[in-house]
Model the fold of this input.
Amino acid sequence: MNVAAVIGSPIEQSLSPAIHNAAFRIHGDDWIYVAFEVAPGSASDAIRAMRTLGISGLSVTMPLKSEICDAVDDLDESARLVRSVNTVIRRPDGSLLGINTDGEGCCNALESAGAVLASAKVAIIGAGGTARSIIAAMSLRGIAELVVINRTESHAQEAIKISRLARIGIESDIAKSNILINCTPIGMRSVNESSIPCSSTYLHHGQFVLDAVYDPLLTPLLREARKVGATIVDGLDMLVHQGALQQQHWLGRLPSVEIMRSAALEELSARSMRHAPIA
Done:
């Protein structure tokens, strides 16, 4: 049996085991997926364990995505460009390759919802690893322009270096965008959960709005976007699309994103029931 795993901290709330194991089962793969708590500063130890234990693939989540870059043998062009790895592949010779599927997963989620990326005007809120990976992927999809809106200008400056199509924007640029993507934790449950990362006055009909936050599924940003007739794409869609790409790299086939999303929803429902107050 092949073993894959997700590493990060905290890891107990990760939906990755649910979505990956569901896909393995439905496709009849002799694989199992588990979660390991790995503290910041321990990425190299995790990679040594991967080599020693013969783990076939890794998913990498916060706060290890940048740190893991220096622990693997090689990086693909995208991971090297954005200095962020969310997937580790064991190659036939045993060496470990770090890649990033976040950006492509975001693009695929938007396209599945009906967005046309070619010639689109894109606004991204945030400038961290996820935002940078999306900038890199979007630049290969024929977009017209991309603005990065971020509280810390120095981080935004680093992010726009990834693409000649990117520039630092201001909040009002959102009104001109066809696609808006939130890559900040604003709106996450227990993290500014009642806030949105921009003024709702800049949201409009015909816009596609993706929020990388998936807990809750309907974030305050998506709720406001839906009110004005925008097409909303939740963070769970991005999660399952990037996870599907991980499995494609590990097994050479693209799994059912519908099965993965259904498994994630079942897991979220089960967690909600476990934490529901007893009458």
